[in-house]
């Protein structure tokens, strides 16, 4: 059905307003946080690095974020906040992560991830209570840890026992909780002492059984004001592996009567509640981690441009390769994250595989490419002063960002049993839905009821065969066109090979899938999903979007296939496929863009925002 011109104009106006809102909010926060290069800025690199050396959070950082109203950005609009799309919330928190990971986690990301449990599974009363806690300045923390094998979670030794008078009593101790001494609310997972808490099955639609409730755990949403006075036990930061510079502790209970209305979902549904909520939260922290990688790469480029002694010059072949590779890797990660986060709103029934792919791939890729930059700085990468210290700090921060090896293995475990079904049914040529690869198109509200732990389709992966069919119609010729067609053909062939191997797997035998071979197939899937996302952004995204804050009509960079060829080449490298021959023009295009953004104080991610929100300086 063809839309009328009035409908088309209305849709365009809505998209423009949405894009302006997202960019406007991020720009407003950047202005509020100030120029990170300003040595007098309390959240500039100099002050943050000094606080890191003291083992503290930046002085005044919490007050600055409270003054901006950052907590309102993680509360849904109908509950009194400003949250309309997860993309906006993650971009705002990414701006904080560019300055300091610990501040961003302690003040925002931990609460956003925890609040997802209430937004997805809470009753209206639980959601209203959570919203009020956050809007009043409180923080939330999750008090359990994702374990290595898919559907298992550590609840510490917390146990729920039916009380004689009705309800439940809680005993035991939680695992270690970052930010526990400051949290005003907690999400806990407790095991039923009798092993039978009831609960319904949340089986997936594709028959894999992913995410079925085990009936032995319940999820609890607790307000600190209701807890016994001594329930929160702080732990010395020197005795814990929790996030540096964040206070940590655990909760301990002794026959404590759980307040009525504290169970999220139904009793016994704790594992399913956790898995569905984590499906939403999986790509959020990796998206924020791009901010740390952005600052690390920027500090290296600035050291190279300043011709600091001991640093490889810009004419160095290794320096050029490391900078452009890190830049391309960041774009690969951001494309996958954009599609994964937007799919939660647009294709929630299919989003489980893409959010899992983003969780297990993004942080690891950022860690690797950022680590490769250390050789550009040489021995000065070990120094603590100035930009060298900033690089070292953010490299260290990246090593602490979830999911870590255990969480990545858990994300892979959710992928493996879904691959046979998806390979048999979904990896065929089909165009994606409108807006999946756009950073500016409007998003519908999140509908948790549509989330499915086992994806019923895989529209993202279908982009590869669709691109192979339609690439000849795209306006790219010459060496770039030849390279791009070769890459798309090689990646589509790799997808066909992966499909053949996945279709040969026993779809219902989960034990046979949880093998090194099954995990290797899932690893290949994540890389091909990232390649498909890059193609989707280039073919269907915002290549001509305005860069209003720069006073230019359009950036032009995303329209140039140079970045796409470089990004796909990084995926091919990790898949063990031949990369396209080196091309001087493409290398220079990426290097020139990275250098220009650093010189003008613009971000190196897909969004190209102006840091500090003010006019660029020479």
Automatic annotation (TrEMBL):
Coiled coil regions in record: none
Keywords tagged on the record: FAD, Flavoprotein
SUPFAM superfamilies: Acyl-CoA dehydrogenase C-terminal domain-like, Acyl-CoA dehydrogenase NM domain-like
InterPro entries documented for this protein: Acyl-CoA_Oxase/DH_mid-dom_sf (IPR046373), AcylCo_DH-like_C (IPR036250), AcylCo_DH/oxidase_C (IPR009075), AcylCoA_DH/oxidase_NM_dom_sf (IPR009100)
Acyl-CoA dehydrogenase/oxidase C-terminal domain sequence ranges: 268-391
Alphabetized Pfam families for the sequence: Acyl-CoA_dh_1 (PF00441)
Family: Belongs to the acyl-CoA dehydrogenase family.
Protein name, as recorded: Acyl-CoA dehydrogenase
Organism, scientific name: Streptomyces hiroshimensis
């Amino acid at each position: 059905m063809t839309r009328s011109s009035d409908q088309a104009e209305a849709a365009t106006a809505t998209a423009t307003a949405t894009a302006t809102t997202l960019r406007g909010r991020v720009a407003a926060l950047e202005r509020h946080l100030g120029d990170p290069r300003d040595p007098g800025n309390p959240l500039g690199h100099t002050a943050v690095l000094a606080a890191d050396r003291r083992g503290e959070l930046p002085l005044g950082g919490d007050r600055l974020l409270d003054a901006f109203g950052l907590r309102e950005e993680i509360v849904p609009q109908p509950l009194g906040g400003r949250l309309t799309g997860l993309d906006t919330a993650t971009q705002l928190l990414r701006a904080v992560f560019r300055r300091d990971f610990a501040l961003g986690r302690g003040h925002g990301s931990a609460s956003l991830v925890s609040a997802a449990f209430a937004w997805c599974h809470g009753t209206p009363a639980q959601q209203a209570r959570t919203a009020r806690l956050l809007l009043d300045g409180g923080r939330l923390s999750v008090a359990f840890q994702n374990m290595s094998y898919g559907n298992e979670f550590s609840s510490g030794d917390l146990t729920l026992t039916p009380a004689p008078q009705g309800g439940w009593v809680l005993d035991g101790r939680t695992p270690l909780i970052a930010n526990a001494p400051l949290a005003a609310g907690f999400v806990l997972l407790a095991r039923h002492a009798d092993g039978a808490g009831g609960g319904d099955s949340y089986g997936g639609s594709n028959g894999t059984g992913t995410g079925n409730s085990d009936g032995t755990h319940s999820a609890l949403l607790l307000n600190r004001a209701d807890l016994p006075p001594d329930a929160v036990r702080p732990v010395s930061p020197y005795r814990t592996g929790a996030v540096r510079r964040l206070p940590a502790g655990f909760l301990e209970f002794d026959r404590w009567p759980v307040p009525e209305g504290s169970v999220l979902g139904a009793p016994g549904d704790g594992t399913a509640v956790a898995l569905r909520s984590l499906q939403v939260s999986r790509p959020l922290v990796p998206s924020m981690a791009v901010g740390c990688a952005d600052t690390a790469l920027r500090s290296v480029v600035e050291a190279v441009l300043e011709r600091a002694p001991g640093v490889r010059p810009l004419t160095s072949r290794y320096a050029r390769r490391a900078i452009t590779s890190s830049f391309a890797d960041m774009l690969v990660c951001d494309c996958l994250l954009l599609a994964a986060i937007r799919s939660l709103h647009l294709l929630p029934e299919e989003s489980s595989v893409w959010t899992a792919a983003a969780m297990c791939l993004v942080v690891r890729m950022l860690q690797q490419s950022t680590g490769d930059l250390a050789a550009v700085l040489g021995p000065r990468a070990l120094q603590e002063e100035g930009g060298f210290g900033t690089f070292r700090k953010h490299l260290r921060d990246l090593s602490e960002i979830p999911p870590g090896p255990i969480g990545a293995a858990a994300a892979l475990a959710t992928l493996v049993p879904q691959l046979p079904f998806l390979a048999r049914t979904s990896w065929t040529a089909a165009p994606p839905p409108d807006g999946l690869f756009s950073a500016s198109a409007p998003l519908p509200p999140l509908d948790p009821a549509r989330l499915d732990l086992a994806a019923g389709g895989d529209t993202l992966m279908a982009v590869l065969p669709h691109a192979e069919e339609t690439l000849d119609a795209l306006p790219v010729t010459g060496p770039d066109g030849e390279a791009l067609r070769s890459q798309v053909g090689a990646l589509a062939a790799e997808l066909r090979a992966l499909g053949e191997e996945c279709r040969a797997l026993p779809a219902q035998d989960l034990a046979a899938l949880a093998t090194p071979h099954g995990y290797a197939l899932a690893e290949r899937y994540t890389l091909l999903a990232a390649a498909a996302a890059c193609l989707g952004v280039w073919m269907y995204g915002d290549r001509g979007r305005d860069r209003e804050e720069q006073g230019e009509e359009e950036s032009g960079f995303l329209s140039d296939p140079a970045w796409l060829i470089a990004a796909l080449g990084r995926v091919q490298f990790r898949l063990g496929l031949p990369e396209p021959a080196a091309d001087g023009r493409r290398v220079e295009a990426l290097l020139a863009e990275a250098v220009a953004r650093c010189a003008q104080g613009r971000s190196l991610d897909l969004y190209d925002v102006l840091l500090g929100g003010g006019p660029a300086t020479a």
